[in-house]
């Protein structure tokens, strides 16, 4: 028995018709060279030949970029490493043990970068050699693909290295806890929050990192009311801080009651993986509550909720094994948020925090995802606009992240 056809999600009849025309056009373009006597293997061979042109161009671009940057960067890093070693020889480690540990950790990190750069130089030569071998056989798609994979590794590392030089904020180097909360009372915001969760998880996977999805509060609509994602890798906070604020999925640009927006707020909190920023919190300033999750699907779990009475900042945790662990997790998140607020306000004493100056995530518009009359992703912080909505929702948000990081870096100079 044939399955019932599913309606096209959030698309109009003219858009569906336009897609059909595009499909027909693409079919004619690809199929006109083939005759009935051609075998399927002949078609596969031609398709692969067409694909190798694009791959070769990407390989050449990555190799050229790597040859220009990698040797220079490697030389600079090696010189800086020697300078740091000489500086440490003259330093008395007993004077300031905390600073000494930071210096040793930084030295070890830079040594890893140097080793990676040496591997990168090897990968560049490997990609060039494999590409040259592949060119002796016009249809050797396997070798071209192997060279392309090596060039992707080159580009990915150079991108990350350049970003690490831009991300100079006090907590940029740390991991991140990203909290998504559905807005409004409708089911569409809950479904939209679920879509954002997928986008961030896919982004991390594309960078070669895993995530921990915690405290997922599901709803009957098939979406989520809230969720926390932990990114346990360096510079995650620096990458993702620009995502903080309200994300709107809009079915249309027309401001009518028939085209309401689906809302979700994203908050980003530093996740300290190695360095511990500890400072005392007075128990009398903490309002601790033990609640139950609002899960409509699955088990109801206990939640530790903490409010800081002096600032009104609230945090919670429910993803750990027991009440004590959840309390400690919530306290760490509260301390992280307080540290960020103090850094933003340029103060070192918690008692000097101006509560009126604390920016709430719901008061900060970050991005609009528009479906009609044309698909568009509009970043409201940087002004960047991307036409490929589906690609962004599949986790390809590096352009948006880079734009915000560059803007923040430029503003910090002045």
TrEMBL record:
Domain called Peptide chain release factor: residue spans: 132-243
**GO term, biological process aspect, one:** translational termination
| One Pfam family of this chain | PCRF
| Name of the protein this chain belongs to | Peptide chain release factor PrfB3, chloroplastic
Upper lineage: Eukaryota, Viridiplantae, Streptophyta, Embryophyta, Tracheophyta
